[in-house]
């Protein structure tokens, strides 16, 4: 999504010029009546929503989508959108990309003033970029990809919940069971909870970015995500290493070298993560 916004910002002058000129050339359809405005759908394939407000930006028409209408939107105040636009013509203004509350996808809003009313045109950002050939978008492939990410994300959430459930189950079994209560009874649930948290955080981020698009993703956030995931793994491995040391110390001290190998492995992951952090910070400065 971030790449699409950057593409728009690089070519926004040409895109905005196209939208303004298309609206003005077809001015015969530009009326406060929503019935007349429907004609723009035949002219602009990237157009996804039209509605009309009065001079106080109070919506007076239905939400007219390409294939349906929504009456519940009548009466809403749209002034918040006006604060985000920049003027392109004496009677036309255009907003920067944002997530539409009506469709849940990135869009650009063009506002045209006509006969004491304001007509709002919402353009789908992806379709708009596709119209200019900046990106190639196949509808079936896009739906398949989104479905695949949803399946993987949901599966990760399931196993995260299973890991958390196992932590409580294992603790309960040791606390009330005949096996007895030991240090393992505390360490194992902590490891399971830590891994469950890391997996859930990974699945949540995956679903937000690739399925629901709740926010514009930033490539810099990828570094934060990886750091959080590796931190959880380091914590789990450190706890496991501590358990191994205790077990060996109580049973067979000749095996302490194996515990040392595990601790060295954890230390190498920490060093690698530190180097990664350094490189990320260095790239940001440059």
Describe the structure.
- The protein is α+β, with helices and mostly antiparallel strands.
- Helix content is 60%, strand content 13%.
- It has 9 helices and 8 strands.
- The protein has helices at 2-25, 34-37, 40-43, 79-82, 125-131, 139-176, 184-212, 219-251, 256-285; strands at 47-53, 63-65, 69-70, 85-87, 92-95, 98-99, 106-114, 117-124.
- Strands 1, 2, 3, 4, 5, 6, 7 and 8 form an 8-stranded antiparallel beta sheet that branches.
- A hairpin with a 6-residue loop joins strand 6 and strand 7.
- The longest helix is centred in the middle third of the chain and has 38 residues, at 139-176.
- Residues 214-219 have low confidence and may be disordered.
SSE topology:
Layout: H1 2-25, H2 34-37, H3 40-43, E1 47-53, E2 63-65, E3 69-70, H4 79-82, E4 85-87, E5 92-95, E6 98-99, E7 106-114, E8 117-124, H5 125-131, H6 139-176, H7 184-212, H8 219-251, H9 256-285
Antiparallel strand pairs: 1-2, 1-8, 2-3, 4-5, 5-7, 6-7, 7-8
Helix pairs in contact: 1-5, 6-7, 7-8, 8-9
């Amino acid at each position: 999504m971030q790449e699409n916004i950057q593409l728009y910002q690089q070519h926004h002058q040409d895109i905005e010029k196209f939208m303004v000129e298309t609206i003005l050339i077809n001015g015969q359809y530009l009326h406060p009546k929503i019935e007349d405005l429907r004609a723009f759908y035949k002219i602009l394939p990237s157009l996804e929503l039209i509605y009309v407000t009065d001079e106080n930006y109070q919506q007076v028409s239905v939400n007219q989508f390409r294939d349906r209408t929504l009456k519940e939107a009548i009466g809403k105040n749209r002034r918040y959108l006006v604060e985000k636009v920049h003027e392109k013509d004496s009677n036309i203004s255009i907003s920067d990309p944002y997530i539409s509350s009506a469709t849940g996808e990135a869009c650009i809003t063009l506002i045209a003033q006509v006969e004491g009313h304001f007509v709002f045109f919402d353009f789908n950002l992806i379709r708009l970029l596709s119209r200019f050939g900046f990106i190639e978008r196949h509808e079936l492939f896009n739906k398949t990809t989104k479905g695949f990410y949803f399946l993987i994300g949901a599966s990760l959430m399931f196993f995260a919940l299973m890991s958390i459930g196992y932590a409580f189950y294992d603790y309960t079994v040791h606390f009330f069971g005949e096996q007895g209560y030991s240090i393992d009874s505390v360490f194992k649930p902590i490891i399971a909870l830590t891994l469950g948290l890391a997996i859930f955080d990974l699945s949540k981020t995956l679903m937000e970015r690739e399925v629901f698009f709740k926010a514009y993703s930033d490539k810099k956030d990828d570094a934060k995500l990886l750091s959080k995931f590796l931190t959880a793994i380091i914590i789990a491995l450190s706890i496991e290493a501590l358990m191994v040391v205790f077990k060996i110390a109580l049973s067979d001290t000749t095996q302490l070298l194996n515990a040392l190998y595990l601790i060295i492995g954890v230390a190498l992951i920490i060093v690698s993560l530190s180097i990664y952090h350094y490189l990320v910070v260095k790239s940001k400065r440059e």
